[in-house]
Design a protein that fits this description.
Blueprint lengths: L2 H6 L16 H10 L5 H22 L4 E3 L7 H8 L8 H6 L1 H10 L9 E3 L6 E3 L2 E2 L10 H12 L4 E6 L1 H7 L1 E2 L13 H17 L4 E5 L9 H15 L6 E5 L8 H6 L5 E5 L4 H10 L3 E11 L9 H11 L3 E8 L18 H4 L5 H17 L5 H15 L7 H8 L12 H12 L16 H12 L4 H22 L16 H4 L3 E4 L6 E4 L2 E3 L3 E7 L6 H9 L7 E4 L1 H6 L9 H21 L4 E5 L14 H16 L7 E6 L8 H6 L4 E4 L7 H9 L4 E4 L12 H12 L20 H21 L4
Helix pairs in contact: 2-3, 9-10, 13-15, 17-24, 19-20, 24-25, 28-29
Length: 772
């Protein structure tokens, strides 16, 4: 096909769409089901209506081919585990007895059975459930969900393409099951898994699928020759099948690198590539392999992970370059639109001038359609869209919100000395022990306590004018009093105020910093039914006034024990926001760091002896390619130190990280120079403690002993056994006892019982330590 006819054939598509609904109907239905207020039929009915609504929105926008199979009750990787029959042994009875309850048991656990481990989906803030595999794993096909959802879309008269996690990525995301040697490589199961995928593909073809998309984002990471050979074998074998739909292999989040030649020559009908994160690299590599003659190329030219409008002329230029490299070029977002909110047009608190700069999932769908039309029919067919786009881009570039001379002057004045504490850790540690007087194995929590219905009602009442600010603050004081009193009675050593006044650990600060925008309905799924509203980092950042000092000081006035000041670190403020794309991330991180430094200094001046600056996103934001990591970690760790380096030696700086793989960033954790770090460890059985020990990490650490993402209440003995495991890696004088993460999403009953057991475990294990 010539370039001209390839352009004429251009169609618009997406890989996935937000699942929750405009009013988070899915969250409400699932949580209602868990509480017994919604039946299984009711949940399924709500879900079917949400799928229909999503597909109709896409079709109405002009999307030619809608995705199916991307919808999930909890997580698409868990759905894949069900599809291939890789149910962990401990969950099989539950799944056999009631498939839906068994599914949620794998996701959340029960009091009797632990859930699957959860970690981040590549470098996003989406969490997936980690498959557990071993040499005895046997796969069986279960394509019921995928087939049923395809049939739903086809029944609406739509052209539909099922989207599946690819077999290579599925195995590369998996871990050895409990009891399996840690050096077991799940990828060795590929030959067992491929026949199951073959069966699923045949079922989808029989159900009416012309194309099936197989997502292989793991191939944008650095891969060994053996892993690339596995990819080559997988798509050679799947491509050789006769009873299958056409195959579109998709990769995103970065450049495909050495995997591109492998997939380009595979006997599949199409490739989908990301031309936002790695446009130049993927273009160059695609040209180097001679393009994709006779194949379909789906070009991801609209950013599926950020909310800024597309530069339409730039994207059209990229698409024009691609026309000569494939038989057919279609237009898409760079990845699933799962990672952005649903609709910017419903936002009422953002100035109309600024709202023009934003594109959520519905607006991105329109951009994709416009680009496909422009590619197929020429720019004269989209003159209105191009004019509006140019005006919006110019408006943003010239806006005073994006450039504050005072902020930039302060950044320019930062010196190397501003990023280092005045004394080395060993001297600080001695001063802190003398000042704080804590026991061995000190207990604490990560920061937040349950956000009760009363707190949510109070916020709603304040917004609606049913109570005034004074009335709202009295409710916050009462909540802080209850949290502090409970911690004292339970015997926790370092207290927190519970964060009753905070809506979200990033949004709360963003609403008090210049340069940030907050949304009202910009919900994005983090995991399961946990949705967040990432703020929009639109301009230069500064702190007009203290943000946390008042409530931290109030909590400290209620107790003689130290109360931690609680802040969110600069990297996490970026990672869990939609960050500006018009300057380097490191520059933005330094701006946030200086605003936080002011807050840290004010907390210390107000009497805080312990200050925690959370950086759960440090690992999450790590570039997927090793060659890009050093530069990132340099500015990321520097930004943290810039936030914290101004305090006295006897002020103890904590940080916290959760739900990620930490083994490959232990040196960066060391480089933060925090006095204490707390990390998720309960689901991974203290793996991070062993990783810290192997590195020779010299500071104090609290690997978590209470998995807060499950409703399970761990027994005191269970927590004690985890502590004993931790002590094998970290000496008692440097080991803290804490949950995995904050307690915001838990209920008070389970929180009380779990923390009482945590304190009891610490006392038990303290009693087992040799006398000094």
């Amino acid at each position: 096909m010539t370039s001209k006819s390839a352009a004429a054939a251009a169609r618009a598509t997406v890989y996935g769409y937000p699942r929750q609904g405009q009013h988070r109907e899915l969250k409400k239905a699932i949580e209602g089901y868990w509480k017994g207020r919604v039946t299984a039929d009711g949940l399924q009915g709500t879900s079917a209506e949400l799928r229909r609504s999503n597909w109709q929105q896409l079709a109405d926008a002009g999307i030619h081919e809608v995705p199916t199979g991307d919808f999930s009750y909890y997580d698409h990787v868990l759905d894949t585990t069900v599809m291939v029959g890789a149910i962990p042994e401990r969950h099989r009875d539950a799944v056999a007895a009631h498939a839906l309850n068994g599914y949620f048991a794998m996701a959340r656990g029960t009091q009797e059975v632990a859930p699957l481990e959860m970690t981040k989906w590549f470098d996003t803030n989406y969490h997936y459930l980690v498959p557990e595999l071993g040499p005895d794993t046997h796969f069986t096909a279960n394509s019921a969900k995928q087939v049923a959802e395809l049939k739903e879309a086809l029944a609406l008269g739509l052209i539909a393409r099922p989207v599946l996690v690819g077999p290579v990525t599925y195995l590369l995301l998996a871990k050895p099951a409990p009891g399996v040697p840690t050096d077991f490589e799940p990828l060795t199961l590929l030959d067992r898994l491929l026949p199951v995928y073959a069966e699923v593909l045949a079922d989808l073809r029989a159900a009416g699928a012309e194309w099936v998309q197989l997502d292989e984002p793991a191939l944008v990471q650095d891969r060994t020759p053996a892993e690339l050979n596995a990819a080559e074998r997988a798509y050679r074998d799947l491509g050789a099948l006769t009873d299958r739909p056409k195959l579109l292999v998709a990769s995103y989040f970065d450049r495909l690198g050495d995997a591109l030649p492998v997939l380009a020559k595979a006997p599949v009908e199409g490739l989908a590539l990301d031309f936002t994160e790695a446009a130049a690299a993927n273009l160059e590599a695609l040209a180097a392999v001679g393009g994709l003659p006779g194949k379909r190329l789906v070009a991801g030219v609209v950013n599926g992970r950020n909310i800024w409008i597309n530069d339409l002329p730039k994207s059209l230029s990229t698409l024009g370059t691609l026309l000569g490299l494939a038989d057919r070029v279609d237009v898409a977002a760079s990845c699933s639109l799962l990672h952005v909110p649903l609709d910017a047009s419903v936002e009422r608190d953002i100035e109309p001038q600024i709202l023009r700069w934003l594109a959520f999932a519905k607006q991105k769908s329109a951009e994709i359609v416009a680009l496909a039309k422009g590619l197929a029919q020429g720019t004269d067919a989209i003159t209105g869209e191009l004019a509006a786009n140019r005006a919006a881009l110019a408006s943003r570039a010239g806006s005073p919100i994006t450039h504050d001379p005072a902020v930039r002057a302060r950044i320019a004045a930062v010196t190397e000395a501003d990023t280092h504490r005045s004394q080395p850790y060993t001297e600080r540690a001695a001063a802190q022990r003398a000042h704080l007087g804590l026991p061995l194995l000190p207990t604490t929590t990560i920061g937040s306590f349950p956000q009760t219905d009363e707190l949510r009602v109070a916020r709603a009442d304040l917004r609606a004018g049913r109570i005034d600010t004074a009335g709202y603050e009295e409710r916050i004081k009462a909540e802080i009093q209850e949290v502090v009193s409970f911690q004292e009675k339970t015997g926790i050593d370092v207290l927190v105020h519970g964060e009753a006044e905070r809506n979200d650990m990033v949004q709360y600060f963003a609403e008090q910093l210049t340069g940030y925008l907050a949304t009202q309905r910009g919900w994005v799924q983090s995991y399961g039914t946990r949705y967040v509203r990432p703020p929009i980092l639109a301009g230069d950042i500064s702190r007009p006034e203290p943000m946390t000092v008042r409530w931290t000081s109030y909590a400290q006035s209620l107790s003689d024990r130290p109360v931690k000041g609680m802040l969110t670190g600069p990297v996490t403020m970026l990672a869990w926001s939609f960050v500006r794309d018009d300057q380097p991330l490191g520059d933005t991180a330094r701006q946030v760091a200086l605003a936080l430094r002011d807050e840290v200094d004010d907390l210390e001046a107000a009497g805080s002896s312990v200050i925690q600056v959370d950086e759960p996103a440090l690992r999450e934001t790590l570039p997927l390619r090793a060659t890009d990591r050093e530069a990132y970690l340099d500015w990321a760790t520097e930004a943290f130190r810039l936030s914290t380096a101004g305090v006295r030696p006897d002020t103890q700086i904590h940080t916290h990280m959760c739900y990620a793989e930490f083994g490959d960033i232990v040196q960066a954790i060391d480089d933060l120079d925090a006095d204490v770090i707390s990390l998720e460890a309960a689901r991974s059985h203290m793996q991070v403690a062993r990783e810290l020990a192997a590195h020779g990490y010299p500071r104090e650490a609290g690997p978590g002993v209470y998995d807060i993402h499950s409703p399970r209440v761990p027994s005191a003995e269970e927590a004690a056994e985890l502590l004993r495991t931790g002590l094998k890696a970290i000496p008692a004088e440097r080991l803290w006892v804490n949950p995995d993460c904050g307690l915001k999403t838990r209920g008070w009953a389970e929180t009380r019982a779990s923390l009482e057991n945590l304190v009891a475990a610490a006392r038990t294990v303290r009693g087992e330590l040799p006398a000094s």
